[in-house]
Amino acid sequence: MDLDSLFINTDYKTVTVTIPCLETVEGDEHHHPHQELLVQQDEEKRGELRLDLACSVSASTDFDLTGQILWPVSVLLGHYLASPSGRALIDGNNVVELGAGCGLPGLVAAHFCRQAIVTDGNEIVVNLLQQNCTSFFNSLKQTTTTTTPTNGTTAPVVTAQKLLWGDRQDLSLLLDQIEKEENSQPQHPPVLETSQRRQTDPVNVIIAADVVQWVAVLEPLLHTVKALLWRDKNNKNSDPSIHKGQDETPPVFVLGIVNRAKVTWDKFFQLAHELGFTEQKIDPTEYLEGGVVPASCREYGGRETHIYHLYLTDFSKPPVLLFNND
To answer: Which helix (H) or strand (E) covers residue 252, if one does?
Structure first.
């Protein structure tokens, strides 16, 4: 008997998730980078993304395999990334998802960003991510027309890769993959006039959902985020509000979060402040119709789900990567 089978569940089911793409950015409906991938709803003047995801309907006993489940706050983050505000943030940028699990937010981002890399620290979950990336590309073959997008952009780019938080080697391999893909893509301007693109940074935006669960992982998580967003700007502090509407914003970590335990919540934001991050809670009216959280985005037990921006605004102390995973 394979003892692993007693503790690890890989009997995945396929679920279809629908994410609305509200069209409130002027001219956005004419310049979507992958317009042919949207299911149009003319009566509502919006499109939809429909993604088929393999996931587990029940958790494995290993706490490190929670990524096999599609959690509600991941769906909420998908809603945000497909909104005008989210699209403006990631358009033309390289996006990395940490603790991606099933990969929903990263796959949504892939429709709008330059390239998306979905990562997880567990090999079993990385295999699930690769499965969902394959399904994603297969769906593109079925839905993409022979018409070239008018803006000349390439097809969505998304890859799955292992990244254990705090691991120098994993981080180095990730940055190598980003550089390799970056060099292989044609250069083109951002699609949206409201884009906040930073031309020279390898990683512009980090996304994650439901990764703030255990106090023990908060420090390696935040140091990994800081390492990916790190810029050669000593002692440069900035207020994120002054960048609104400009071509450059501070490096940002877009986080879908659930307050399951006050001690973990408080510790996370305390550490974030100590490491040079400034948080901004995103009002639901910016990305949800009427500001109402859909049932698919509501956490079990009535816990509230939120979207935060964590801007890296203090570069006075470099990140610390804790170990090599040899």
So the answer is: strand 252-258
Contact call for residues 120 and 170 (beta carbons, < 8 A) = no
247, two tokens: 């071509």
Strand order in the sheet with 305-312: 158-162, 115-120, 94-97, 205-209, 252-258, 305-312, 277-281
Q: Tokens at residue 23, please?
A: 């069209």
Q: What does each C-alpha distance from 102 to 49, 81, 323 come to in angstroms? A: 16, 16, 26
Q: Which of 50, 55, 54, 22 is nearest to 38 (CA)?
A: 50
Helix (H, G, I), strand (E, B) or coil at 207: strand
201-240 residues labelled b (16+ CB within 10 A) or e (exposed): bebbbbbbbbbbbeeebbbbbbbbbbbbbbeeeeeeebeb
Percent of the chain whose pLDDT exceeds 70:
71
37: three-class secondary structure by DSSP: helix
* The model's pTM: 0.83
**Neighbouring residues of 198: CB distance < 8 A, sequence distance ≥ 6:** 93, 204, 248, 249, 251
Q: Which two tokens stand for residue 310?
A: 């964590």
Give, to the nearest 10 degrees, the angle between helix 262-274 and helix 215-229: 30
Candidates 173, 52, 161; CA nearest to 99 is 161
pLDDT tens digits, 38-73:
544 444 446 889 999 999 876 554 555 677 889 999
pLDDT in tens, 249-275: 688 999 999 998 999 999 999 999 999
